Amino acid sequence: MRRVVLGFSGGVDSSVAAALLREAGWEVLCLYLETGSGEEAAARAAADALGLPLAVYDARAELEKYVCAPFAAAYARGETPSPCVMCNPSVKLRLLLEYAGRQGAEAIATGHYARAEGGALYMGREPNDQSYMLCRILPEQRRRLLLPLGGYEKREVRALAAALGLPSAQKDDSMELCFVPDGDFAAWIERRGGAPGPGPLIYGGRVVGEHRGIHRYTLGQRRGLGFAAGRRVFVSDIDPQRNSVTLADGDGLFAREVTALDARWQLDAVPDGPFRCLARIRHSRSAALAVCRAEGARLGITFDEPQRAPTPGQAAAVYLPDGRLAAGGVIARGAGT
């Protein structure tokens, strides 16, 4: 029987993924990665309910090195990183592959809502598509990755869980960072020490107040600005050199041109010229029509329509018109025009 190692949290997604893999004839080995979320007991209960073996690996040291420290450093630079995009290649899928090697498993699997077909990755179904989170994984990870939920929507997965009698069927979705259980990542950065201090809050070319640290802001942000101008204002610039946050009425937030660096390709051959594509510059955004130009590890993306607040540090995912994931890079400062 073919053997697969599944990243298993005990939630509805990984539980249904396990059931689907077993139904497809795989011998499923579950691996729970401890990140500080405190969900080990739930994972053990879910694995027991499925009658599957569960191994536990303490991934906190790897998470600190490859995700937490870079995450905090990026915010100190005035960037807004994508922690799950960082984690998947460097921690989650790497550890799954290493465990698969020790167990003689030929494949790894996760509960992401994306499609894996013939060694290629494709968008999952809206509104739950999570292919963006996989845009920077490594070739060996991609070639051995199974994504059993790729053809489903979340509501369908919950219905399957209920029909199977799984205890996770009604479990709430986890919306926070696994290493920041309370969701207050700004306070988490401050507890680590070395967080940026207060600085000038600028509006209309003049200082109008004091911000609480640039790590508490992101481009396009409207809430929690601590400034009342009698109108809706947004964060339009974060300058780590001046330690300043600039507000605007919304002008200057949209851009058609985006530059992404450190690109990782999910195609066997890199296109040798500009190509039509779909591109996504934030997980919560729909993919938009664009043209992509590749120059080494640099992606130049020109959207058909202006996009709101391309944000340094966020991932940019590029797809072929058929929904195949082509590449993922990191949006550069000053990327939009």
Lay out the secondary structure:
Blueprint lengths: L2 E5 L4 H12 L3 E8 L5 H11 L3 E5 L1 H17 L6 H21 L3 E3 L4 E4 L2 E4 L15 H5 L1 E2 L7 H11 L20 H8 L6 E5 L2 E6 L22 E6 L4 E5 L5 E12 L9 E6 L7 E8 L2 E11 L6 E5 L5 E7 L6
Parallel strand pairs: 1-2, 1-4, 2-3, 4-7, 8-11
Antiparallel strand pairs: 5-6, 8-9, 10-11, 12-15, 12-17, 13-14, 13-16, 14-15, 16-17
Structure write-up:
The structure is a single chain. The protein has seven helices and 17 strands. It has 337 residues and is an alpha/beta fold. Helix 3 (60-76) packs antiparallel against helix 4.
What are the key terms here?
about 325 residues; 17 strands; five-stranded parallel β-sheet; about 30% strand; six-stranded antiparallel β-barrel; alpha/beta
Run of helices and strands: EHEHEHHEEEHEHHEEEEEEEEEE
The Cα radius of gyration reads 21 Å
Shape: globular
Considering DSSP H and I runs of 4 or more, what fraction of the residues is helical?
25-40%
- Which oligomerization state do the chains in this entry correspond to? single chain
- Return the structural class: alpha/beta
pLDDT below 50 for ≥5 consecutive residues: which ranges? none
Mean pLDDT: 92
Strand order within the widest sheet?
A: 12-15-14-13-16-17
Termini Cα gap: 54 Å
Q: Say how many strands there are.
A: 17
Q: What is the helix tally?
A: 7
- Strand percent estimate: 25-35%
Can you summarize the main beta sheet?
6 strands, antiparallel, barrel
